[in-house]
Amino acid sequence: MHPSARLDDRVELVGAATPLERADRLAAAIGMAPGQLWVKREDAIGLAGGGNKVRKLEYLCAEALADACDVVVTGGGPQSNHVRLTAAACARLGLACRVILAGDPPGDPTGNVILDHLLGAELVWAGDLDYYGLERAIQAEVDRLAGSGRRPYLAPVGGASVTGTLGYVRAGLELTTQAPDLDLVVTADGSGGTHAGLVAALGDHRRVLGVDVGTRPDLDERVPEMAAEAAAATGRAAPVGAVQVDHDRIGAGYGAPTDACLEALQLAARTEGLVLDPVYSGKALAGLIAAVRAGRIASDDRVVFVHTGGTPALFSGPYGRWIAGLDGAGRSRPSVAR
After folding, report:
1. SS3 of residue 236 by DSSP
2. Pairing relation of β-strands 122-125 and 96-101?
3. Exposure of 150 by Cβ count < 10 A (0-12 exposed, 13-18 middle, 19+ buried)?
4. What residues act catalytically?
5. What is the domain count for the chain?
6. In a shared domain, residues 112 and 185
7. Residues 298, 181 share a domain
8. How do residues 157-178 score in pLDDT, each as one tens digit?
9. Alpha carbons 275 and 285: distance in angstroms, whole number
């Protein structure tokens, strides 16, 4: 089999190509020209609220089924979009789903955790774990299940394996048919697989800007490695150029509110009716805005912003008061959008 045939080795979860929408009002608000900014609507994928992880799960779940597995084991933070969508994909395909969550069980489930329960995932709360501690906990659960006679499939945090990354090789090729003259794609960087797949498809690290949201500590090393592996797996040349990651939008940590993120959320909503999330896409748009204001994006560049989904996170934790403009005492504070 030719390596490029691997892109056909998937289960169907995404459906038709996701829309690519012109965003002229948002562009004007951040200093870009008409026709310069477009939004790739990965949030419009139909499965369980949508989002970029569905593309990875087409390949991960195909591999699990081919290996005759009966349970998918994965993990993430308490409001993980990847966990929600893994649970949904497993429900559709008749697979059990076991999830390791890095945190403690909430008193009242909110946001993605409600959907995790609704979709039938088995949740294991593992306490405070960093990225690689969570990966080790997932592996330990896989080993435990295998020892009890189950046939587990390990899906890494964020679906960030060579198999999962194929989903964004395919998405990158889809995007080049929709916008053959694109210059730059901007995406959130959590585990790095979306960024890596896009680079493998486009062939040049300089055409993709990832905005670090504080999930993985070694994006600068792992994104190029995954991009090269995905390119080789699909018969493409190794990508050229140096990896592009903005590490300055994280704030106090993963999921921590920032003024720049709030400005991005407000601008997207109030210019385009576009609802972003406070953990991933909001910080990614903040990175795009910063790049425009710093002159790192040229006035004639055609830019595609990848909306990776994640709306359920808006309905969790402290985000309601933050977005509604209330301080800790319930007093209104001014909008930060310009």
Report:
1. coil
2. parallel
3. middle
4. 80
5. 2
6. no
7. yes
8. 999 999 999 999 999 999 999 9
9. 12
Residue 274 phi/psi, 5-degree rounding, is -100, 120
| Domain end (from 123, 142, 159) | 159
164: left (phi over 0), alpha (psi -120 to 50) or beta: alpha
Q: Cα–Cα distance between 173 and 4 in angstroms, integer?
A: 12
In this structure, the answer to whether residues 102 and 154 fall within a common structural domain is: yes
- Name the residue with tokens 């990896």: 243
Residue 138 binned pLDDT confidence (cut-offs 50, 70, 90):
very high
Cα dihedral 288/290/293/297 (nearest 10): -40
Q: Are 148 and 176 in the same domain?
A: no
Judge whether residue 2 has pLDDT over 80.
no
Residue type, 299: S
The conformation of residue 99, written as its DSSP 8-state character, comes to E
The pair of structure tokens assigned to 170 is: 């395919």
Residue 38 lies in a domain: yes
